[in-house]
Design a protein that fits this description.
This protein is an alpha/beta fold. It has a six-stranded parallel sheet with strand order 1-8-5-4-2-3, sandwiched between helices. Helix 9 runs antiparallel to helix 10, helix 10 runs antiparallel to helix 12 and helix 11 crosses helix 12. It starts with 8 loop residues before the first strand and ends in a 6-residue tail after the last helix. 54% of the residues are buried. The protein binds nicotinamide-adenine-dinucleotide and zinc ion. The site of nicotinamide-adenine-dinucleotide has 30 residues, from helix 4, strand 6, helix 6 and helix 10. Zinc ion binds next to helix 6 and helix 10.
Length: 405
């Protein structure tokens, strides 16, 4: 038996935020990040729509990027005090993911973070509140996914919480919210989205329900991401939908080791000033992982299909895989994203020697490889690497070496 789960309603298109007016309930809490939603006037609009619906509204503001366990626990305490029947999470992946985890803790105040991280181990939610997610970035698709990524900064590790219980009830994909994204955010979140679609398409859990969503998302992102980065707002609006389609695919077909590696390298060099932004990590690692996975015949064939949909040419699957890798690397260049950790510099831009010194990387390599193998995304990757292979792969991602194993 297979399961395919999505939110009950997905509203999309410019201005669809106003659907908040139609919610029925008594109390809503709005969870937002650092201020982008307020500056854009969207927080005020959402609050006004909910008040128009007759609800009392409370705010949880200032949720940081890559939210911590502590932020989740503090937010849940506020929810316990206010007792909302709607949780409205608005912003990038960070505030929405944090709000999902707060929701679990609000419904089950005694649950520990470790218990939340048991894959498909979340008890039944919606006994206290339902959940609306409104994305303002075009990448994570957390508005439609069964995942929440929370960082344990003491360990320097990102933990995915995974369960269809936390798939939101309503997603509001309003492209107006994506218009204020700075270029760098467009680039990172867009490469996150294409990674979701590619990993979902070759995942061992892919199926006929997820494939059309993944492949169509890839086609859209290929056409729209670079124009969106360069300021084309029609392309920006299409990217908002494309990333959501990719999310519907990967929430059900799962991901692969690009994400395992991104999760385990994101915060581990923080002490050297290098917070490797999720989408940038994916953009750097995806071409390397494609080369590694293509040794698996089924995966190679599927990468070939992707290359065909992208009209990249090539007369056999080996050529198609090479063309796909070259295309993705060209996208990194066009989006000003480096090809490897060594060149990952200030503001995530490419530079000769980035934040992460070679000796520090090599010292931590073994532990990162072990952690990446243990990540929840590794199980559905088409090829299961050994610790040695994962170390070699990470080295290729540090030095930008060709993957020939
Ligand atoms: N739950 C999932 O399925 C899933 C999938 C992939 C990634 N993630 C997680 O999501 C997080 C990344 O989320 P993200 O990439 O959306 O970024 P983010 O939420 O971390 O936001 C990054 C920055 O962009 C700002 N911002 C957000 N929207 C803006 C807008 N419209 N205009 C101007 N500024 C804006 C925020 O204030 C913040 O400073 C990571 O923690 C990652 O691990 C989750
Ligand atoms: Zn991602």
């Amino acid at each position: 038996m297979a399961r395919f789960t999505l939110p009950r309603d997905i509203y999309h298109g410019a201005g669809c935020l106003e659907v908040l007016k139609t919610l029925k309930g008594k109390k809503a809490v709005i969870c937002v990040g650092g201020g982008a939603m307020k500056r854009g006037g969207f927080l005020q609009k959402a609050q006004a729509y909910l008040e128009e619906a007759g609800m009392e509204v409370a705010l949880i503001e200032g949720i940081e990027a890559d939210p911590s366990v502590e932020t989740v626990m503090n937010g849940a305490a506020k929810m316990l005090e206010f007792q909302p029947d709607w949780i409205i999470a608005m912003g990038g992946g960070s505030p929405i993911d944090a709000a999902k985890a707060m929701w679990i803790k609000y419904e089950y105040p005694n649950i520990t973070f470790e218990e939340m991280c048991v894959v498909f181990g979340i008890p039944t939610l919606r006994t206290k509140a339902r959940f609306v997610a409104i994305p303002s970035t075009s990448g994570t698709a957390t508005e439609v996914t069964a995942f929440s990524i929370i960082t344990d900064y003491k360990k320097g590790i990102k933990y995915p919480i995974a369960d269809f219980e936390i798939t939101p009830d309503i997603a509001i994909v309003d492209s107006d919210l994506a218009e204020t994204m700075p270029k760098k955010l467009v680039a990172h979140t867009g490469m996150d989205a294409i990674t979701h679609a590619v990993e979902a398409y070759v995942s061992t859990a892919n199926c006929d329900y997820s494939d059309p969503l993944a492949i169509h998302a890839i086609e859209m992102i290929m056409n729209d991401l670079v124009p969106s980065y360069n300021g084309d707002m029609k392309a920006r609006a299409r990217m908002h939908d494309a990333q959501c389609l990719a999310g519907m695919a990967f929430s059900n077909a799962l991901l692969g080791i690009v994400h395992s590696m991104a999760h385990k390298t994101g915060a581990v060099f923080q002490d050297y000033g290098a917070h490797i932004i999720h989408g940038a990590a994916n953009a750097m690692y995806l071409p390397k992982v494609i080369a590694f996975n293509a040794k698996d015949p089924t995966a190679k064939k599927r990468y070939g299909v992707i290359a065909d949909y992208m009209h990249l040419g090539g007369s056999n699957d080996d050529e198609k895989v090479a063309l796909l890798i070259a295309y993705l690397r060209k996208m990194n260049d066009e989006l000003n994203i480096p090809h490897c950790i060594k060149n990952y510099g200030a503001d995530s831009y490419p530079c000769e020697q980035g934040f992460v010194p070679e000796n520090v990387f090599l010292e931590r390599l073994h532990d990162i490889a072990v952690n990446a193998l243990g990540d929840a995304c590794t199980g559905s990757n088409p090829r299961q690497p050994s610790v040695e292979e994962m170390e070699k792969l990470l080295k290729c991602c540090y030095y930008d070496l060709d993957v020939d194993f």
